[in-house]
Design brief:
Length: 394
């Protein structure tokens, strides 16, 4: 197996104009090589959630990368967050998606729309890594159409009473708090959807089965069940009726992190193939080994293109209030690249690539989620086309 500190790739460091980004990446790689890489395969095989590792990452500040120091975070920019998800996914896909869900979905909505009391109560321990965050949007009848939410919230005195089900929730059972959507005004359509912060111990809140997934085996994915769940009135997040808008903006950021995750998985596959080819000394006669070297070139170009778009989207997020197009483009291309490169890596490594305990087979299984999560790639095409036409109309 290749060392995860190796990273053969076409240079894309023009996006990393500040030394702090390079230093952050190198420190993170060293941490992952020491603490994550040695335990990843066993946790995957046992479908075991990496609680102890997350506690270590919390103490190092990795669980609060984009949040301000006043709330316990590291105060770093969106590009640093993209690097975090890329590098953790390159080492271990399950770890990448756990962090992406915790930071981007379970914590960021509170940072964006929570009041000061909510930030102190929930965001501070989340950013410090003392607690884990989750998210509830998808429902059995409402996969790509989040506006078809049926989970309801009815005000009853000092509490909202929630009824409904959320499925395919990352960090289910492991998180302390969950940001969820529910219909508060059914006659208003999407404008009747609101957002809530729900703690795992609230009365009427329980979990369904843990999903037995193709990939990302060490991450916890499950169902959130609300059976007359009583949520304090003050746990309404932001304004009533603004939940759909909040969740769509949250997905814009989530698409950058899913793109970064895809990028990390593709880089992992490229690392493994390059390491094998170097050992076989195939550079001695380029023409004799052309059929084995050409796919390596294709993989490297794909990874470089994906990295450029993911980093560009992250930088755009720090510069502009809206990055819908950039996020969708990055997510779409990077997730397609993740599938192409990991699939090609399995083919090139033959029986070694097919083994369950190989990095490339794990990357291949993990990469499929990236074409589905945060909006399927078919949805991304619609978003991209819509945004392009809006640009022309402006």
């Amino acid at each position: 197996m290749a060392s995860i500190t190796m990273s053969p790739s076409i240079p894309c460091d023009n996006h990393l104009t500040q030394e702090r980004h390079r230093a952050f990446r190198e420190k993170l790689r060293t941490f992952l090589a020491e603490h994550a890489d040695p335990i990843a395969e066993q946790h995957e095989a046992e479908t075991r959630f990496p609680r102890e590792l997350l506690q270590k990452m919390g103490r190092e500040g990795y669980l609060g990368v984009p949040f301000g120091a006043q709330y316990g975070g590291a105060g770093l920019d969106p590009l640093s967050l993209a690097i975090l998800i890329e590098e953790t996914s390159r080492c271990w896909g399950s770890l990448g998606i756990i962090l992406a869900a915790h930071i981007g979905l379970g914590s960021n909505p509170i940072a964006m729309w929570g009041n000061e009391e909510q930030k102190q109560k929930y965001l501070v321990p989340l950013a410090r890594g003392e607690r884990l965050g989750g998210y509830g949007l998808t429902e059995p009848q409402a996969g790509s159409d989040s506006g078809a939410t049926l989970t309801s919230a009815v005000l009853d005195g000092d509490h909202w009473v929630l009824n409904g089900t959320k499925c395919w929730c990352t960090n289910a059972t492991e998180a302390f708090s969950y940001v969820v959507s529910a219909v508060t005004d059914p006659d208003l359509g999407k404008s009747g959807i609101s957002a809530f912060i729900v703690e795992k111990d609230f009365p009427g809140f329980s979990f369904g089965k843990k999903e037995d997934k193709l990939g990302l085996r060490a991450s916890a994915t499950g169902t959130l069940i609300f059976d007359s769940c009583r949520v304090p009135r003050e746990n309404l997040l932001g304004e009533r009726g603004q939940g759909f808008k909040y969740f769509m903006q949250t997905l814009d950021g989530g698409r950058i992190t899913i793109g970064a995750m895809s990028l990390g998985l593709a880089q992992c596959a490229l690392d493994e193939v390059a390491a094998v080819l170097v050992k076989e000394c195939l550079t001695a006669d380029l023409f004799e080994h052309e059929l084995r070297l050409a796919p390596l070139a294709e993989m490297a170009v794909d990874v470089a293109a994906a990295r450029s778009l993911v980093y560009e989207a992250a930088i755009t997020r720090s510069l502009r209030p809206r990055w819908t197009l950039e996020g969708a483009v990055a997510k779409y291309l990077a997730s397609e690249v993740g599938m192409r490169v990991s699939s090609k890596a399995v083919e090139m490594l033959g029986e070694r690539g097919l083994m369950m305990n190989s990095r490339v087979s794990r990357a291949f299984r993990d990469a499929k989620l990236c074409t589905i999560g945060e909006g399927t790639n078919e949805i991304q095409k619609v978003v991209i086309a819509r945004e392009l036409l809006r640009t022309l109309e402006a």
